[in-house]
Amino acid sequence: MNRIARPALLRASARAPAFAPVASSLRFSSISSSAALSTTFARRSDAITTFDYQRRHYGAAAGLSEADARERVIKVVKNFHKVDPNAVNEKSHFINDLGLDSLDTVELVLGLEDEFCIEIPEEQADKIQTIEDAVSYLVTNPAAK
């Protein structure tokens, strides 16, 4: 290992604990340092490859199914304090069918945000007037959980 790389690696080990095993081997022997360096990085690259594979595998969520979203939206609407649960169906309009005013609709959309762990932009929230509107928005939103 050349004279420039060794001090740089020693400084890096002070900042990054991941390099500590490599740096400690450099301090004691120059012959085994290249072998230690290659085996340490080989082990770390195997671990990184495994981690990347797992992240890709688990990071690709399938999203919400329409049936699941509809069921959860209906549950939120039925549990809203100003709504008669018997009046709620898949085609219910928040104002015309359920008797909510615009402020109640905003509160209901806030309840949907809590249920699905998302933040709905105001311009989109104004467009949600029915259960079907809510379901179609949530199914197409990849952040909805």
UniProtKB/TrEMBL annotation:
Source organism, top-level taxon: Eukaryota
Sequence ranges assigned to domain Carrier in this UniProt record: 67-142
GO cellular component: mitochondrion
Record pathway: Lipid metabolism; fatty acid biosynthesis
HAMAP family in the record: Acyl_carrier
Function: Carrier of the growing fatty acid chain in fatty acid biosynthesis.
Entry protein name: Acyl carrier protein
Classification of source organism: Eukaryota, Amoebozoa, Discosea, Longamoebia, Centramoebida
